[in-house]
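User: quick one, sequence for these tokens?
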């Protein structure tokens, strides 16, 4: 649909921190259905197509468990290509005895579950954009019950679970932040996103290219929530993929204009939102 390709700016990759890499790898391979693309003693890049990584895991030194009531990862969201893929993974999760939540968001149908460290994962499919309802610049979203009876009609009979399909993408990311005023300026004026939904005074949903959202931010962990320790389980960073080097230069200029820092570290171009969430800028 073009929401995760040029000229759209989108989330292409998420890097999360875990307590035990081997335990997490077992989960992400056997339960979620990723393959390993690269691995070291403390890191792993995961793939669904054998060529590109959309999710990485790392085990920090002196790692501590996930901290409550802090900023950082709310969930990362894995986007499947087709409705049958979501139906198939429902059957797979049930067969493995994995507990999960679910929701119909009007624009999408989603499952929710947690990895062994408490990092939340959304697995979803989009409805066709022709079915989305726009009220001016805002898209209608909800948290309705998922119709499993209708969804499971799409299960492929006689086909066993074979892991995540090749066309799987990192669909969006949702973050805990400490406040929304400076956060809105950062993502809109700095990174060039549009507000596409305001969830009361507690959450914003942002996108480019009229997607329902590439990024969500909320204050549900409390206004003024602190940043977690660097060695805590949670998100290390996420990567924003911009359409060109020129777009990166323009974005860096916009970020610096609003007072945000942009640094180069180990070949990575990094910035931080007002709550300390680390973002890598890439092409």
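Assistant:
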């Amino acid at each position: 649909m073009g929401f995760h390709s040029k000229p759209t700016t989108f989330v292409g990759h998420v890097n999360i921190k875990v307590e035990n890499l081997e335990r997490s790898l077992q989960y992400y391979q056997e339960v979620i259905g990723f393959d390993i693309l690269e691995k070291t003693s403390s890191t792993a890049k995961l793939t669904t197509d054998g060529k590109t990584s959309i999710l990485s895991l790392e085990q920090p030194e002196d790692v501590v468990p996930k901290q409550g009531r802090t900023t950082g990862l709310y969930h990362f969201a894995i986007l499947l290509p087709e409705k049958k893929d979501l139906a198939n993974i429902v059957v797979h999760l049930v067969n493995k005895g994995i507990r999960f939540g679910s929701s119909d968001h009007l624009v999408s149908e989603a499952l929710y579950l947690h990895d062994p460290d408490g990092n939340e994962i959304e697995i979803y499919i989009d409805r066709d954009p022709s079915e989305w309802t726009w009220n001016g610049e805002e898209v209608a979203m909800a948290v309705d019950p998922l119709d499993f009876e209708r969804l499971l009609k799409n299960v492929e009979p006689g086909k066993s679970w074979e892991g995540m399909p090749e066309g799987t993408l990192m669909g969006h990311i949702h973050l805990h932040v400490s406040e929304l005023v400076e956060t809105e300026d950062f993502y809109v004026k700095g990174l060039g996103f549009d507000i596409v939904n305001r969830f009361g005074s507690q959450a914003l949903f942002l996108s480019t290219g009229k997607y329902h959202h590439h990024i969500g931010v909320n204050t549900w962990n409390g206004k003024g929530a602190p940043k977690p320790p660097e060695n805590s389980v949670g998100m290390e960073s996420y990567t924003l993929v911009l359409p060109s080097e020129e777009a990166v230069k323009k974005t860096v200029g916009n970020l610096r204009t609003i007072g945000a820092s942009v640094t180069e570290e180990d070949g990575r171009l990094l910035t931080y939102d007002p709550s300390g969430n680390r973002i890598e800028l890439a092409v």
